[in-house]
Amino acid sequence: MVAFGGGTGLPVLLEGLRKPIGDRLTAVVSVADDGGSSGRLRQELDMAPPGDVRSCLVALAGRRRLAEVFNYRFEGGTELRDHSVGNLIIAALAEMSGGFSEGVQEAARFLRVTGRVFPAATESLTLVVTYTDGTVTRGESTVRESGRVVARVTVEPVTAVAPGAVLEALAGANIVVFSSGSLFTSTIPSLLGGGVPEALARFSGPIVYVANVMTQPGETAGFTLSDHLAAIEEHVGPLVTDVLVNATPLADPLVERYVADGASPVAIDRDRIEAMGVRVREAVMLP
After folding, report:
1. What does pTM read for this prediction?
2. Can you tell me whether residue 257 is helix, strand or coil?
3. Residue 275 in 3-state DSSP?
4. Which contiguous run of DSSP H or E holds residue 116?
5. What span, in angstroms and rounded, lies between the C-alpha atoms of 205 and 191?
6. Pick from 122, 121, 125, 116: which is nearest to 27 by CA?
7. Which of 243, 266, 268, 244 is CA-nearest to residue 255?
């Protein structure tokens, strides 16, 4: 299995898959983040942002105590405040080993990761966001602040390519999964590394999208599930064969908390989804 994504969505998926199929799992992680600790390291060291990759390494780690150390975030001081230990270790390993991808593999060995984790591109990507009103912004963090409706995202540099190991994994995979998470700032950017859209188009097996349970303010407000699928199709083509949706009823207090933050449950417009040629699969996705 090859799983694409980033943010908080992909690590949750990986953690659930670690024991049953971890040794047959390849994770491909977005490197378009430009906020927080990752953004600071990206700017100061001219490196790919390590945060999403770190979260995926931790999710698949066999050395759980060391994984806790990787996730530890400094709370005091000024220079180290809000940096996670794992981000700093990955940054050091990247410098020591001659590249970000190499540093990630060194970190994976430290953590005794089950399966494999790769960045979506061999260098950091900058998200270029076009909105429905024609406005264009650059940077992942600008999306949440814009208050506009996203029409399309691309990445810079346009010459950025996916690691060869990602393309090899796709060639040998029997299933591909697009994880839940921030649609325009995590899931879709993870698919845009050079060579990936073409490899996905050649893939003949099932491609499953794990649907978000809730919309995301500033990114997918008002989106139905078919809108999510249409956005993916707009960027990489009509590749999704199946969509996995949550079959667990949402508790009212949970929904109320999300609604208070501007989110709402994603409507499953089954007829339109099936008209797109996508099968709807249900699973218990929440406790």
Report:
1. 0.94
2. helix
3. helix
4. strand 116-119
5. 17
6. 116
7. 266
Domains of the chain (ranges; CATH) run 2-33+115-205 (3.40.50.10680)
| CA quadruple 8, 12, 17, 23: dihedral sign | positive
Is the backbone peptide bond immediately before 157 cis, with ω within 30 degrees of 0?
yes
Residue recorded with tokens 């490899």? 199
- Nearest CA to 51 among 10, 109, 95, 98? 10
- Amino acid (one-letter) located at 108: A
| 240-242-245 Cα angle (round to 5) | 120
- For 120-253, list the strands marked E by DSSP: 126-131, 136-138, 150-156, 176-178, 207-210, 242-246
3-state secondary structure of 112: coil
126, 32 Cβ separation under 8 angstroms:
yes
pLDDT per residue, tens digit, the chain (287 aa), is: 999 999 999 999 999 999 999 899 999 999 999 988 999 999 999 999 999 999 999 999 999 999 999 999 998 777 888 899 999 999 999 999 999 999 999 999 999 999 999 999 988 899 999 999 999 999 998 887 787 889 999 999 999 999 999 999 999 999 999 999 999 999 999 999 999 999 999 999 999 999 999 999 889 999 999 999 999 999 999 999 999 999 988 888 989 999 999 999 999 999 999 999 999 999 988 76
